[in-house]
Write a structure and sequence with these properties.
With 95 residues, the protein is of the alpha+beta class. It has one domain. Helix content is 42%, strand content 14%. It contains 3 helices and 3 strands, in the order αβββαα. A hairpin with a 5-residue loop joins strand 1 and strand 2. Helix 1 (6-22) crosses helix 3 (78-90). The protein starts with 5 loop residues before the first helix and ends in a 5-residue tail after the last helix.
Length: 95
């Protein structure tokens, strides 16, 4: 589990739908990341900033959505997108 600060959860919640819109389920190299300053971002993978840490790739996001019954519409709603962001951090590949 990645220990996220409240601002990082809010930041990820705001970016998660843009990430899923920009990269479809087949974009296995697409990643969500945290940079050296603690900012959340996403990229096509190879274009990620040097030194960033991968939170999860697109396939991991899809897996969480299926396992926890989230839809793309849930990622648009303020209450559910923040809950999903917390779930992503709880299941992040970092420690």
């Amino acid at each position: 589990m990645l220990k996220a600060q409240p601002r990082q959860i809010k930041d990820l919640a705001e970016k998660i739908s843009s990430f899923t819109d920009a990269f479809g389920p087949g974009a296995l190299d697409a990643i969500l990341f945290v940079d050296d300053e603690g900012n959340i971002g996403f990229s096509a993978g190879p274009d990620a900033p040097a030194g960033c840490r991968v939170i999860m790739n697109r396939a991991g996001i899809d897996r969480l959505m299926v396992l926890h019954a989230y839809t793309t519409l849930d990622l648009e709603r303020p209450d559910t997108k923040e809950a999903f962001a917390e779930l992503v951090f709880e299941n992040a590949w970092l420690s």
